[in-house]
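[DERIVE STRUCTURE TOKENS]
===
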Amino acid sequence: MNRFKKLDLHKLQRSLMVCTMLVLMFGLMSNFPAKAERLKDLAGIQGVRQNQLMGYGLVVGLDGSGDQTTQTPFTVQSIISMMQQMGVTIPVGTSLQLKNVAAVMVTTSLPPFARPGQTLDITVSSMGNAKSLKGGTLLMTPLKGADNQIYAMAQGNILVGGVGASANGSQTQVNHLSVGKISGGATVERAVPSPIGHGNTIQLELNTADFSTASRVVEAINNKFGAETAAAVDGRVIQVKAPMVNDQRVAFLGALESIEVTPAQTAAKVILNARTGSIVMNQSVSLETCAVAHGNLSVVINTDNAVSQPNSLSNGQTAATANSNISITKEGGKLLMLNAGASLADVVKALNSIGATPQDLLAILQAMKSSGALRAELEII
């Protein structure tokens, strides 16, 4: 019993160490200025998108690792229906033992501008109780879109990136055996129209809605192609004037995507994984005065406002600064005092050093957010 407790303690310590490393890493990253990015990484063209496809099929040729037909009647029904279409009639009441067959769902995405004859990679996933799809062959499966129309046909040998073995009553499995892939396993049969705008304009859509970034994109486009070329519709959509001829429009879009824009700094955000205790923040997070008591832990944050008064002949300006003094205590333990100006990264690091658990971190951060002392959006996953 003690051995398992030690193992759990080691796992917790490793989790907290990883948490601290991530916090420090992102804290350091927040000190660097924003970097210019290509417009193609910040926005997409309205109407140019991929479409999800899905189909139901059968995998044959399994080495006894297929569905147990007594528990998956849909597999038997699919086999009977397929055999009837091929002119083979199975007598009513026949009990089929199909250990080498598995019912599967086939999924893929149809990229924009795909044309008939183009091949797509597909994912094959067991929907019954098949033990493994290794070595199986997917029979011809139609792939349909949301409109229930067939856009591709899939077939081929499945590649499973895993292995399983059993000996003397024990089983060993590495990776997942009930999901596999077929490279180029689907052939496009129907194209989806992907109009690049209508008339003499196109619509750019930012990946993340932000008014500041939208304004910067408009300014960068107008500086390169002339005034009034682009105009922001809202915080996400930007309307851009483009040539009418397709060839010229493609060249224009190529140049448009290469424009470099420095995006605006995103809102402060803290993401906490409640299961592992990992904490990630996208920039320096400010803390206000607060006091939190959680079990045998106490966190006190005091903000000291200081005023710097220059000499009378120095032509300087009066400046006000706010420094945070943070103290963390644990009942029966030690008192930790953090330096002035400490950030949330310092708080988390200090909590980890006195043995706070992931649940402790979650409760304390939630309390800080509820009281308004944590100046950031808190997302728990």
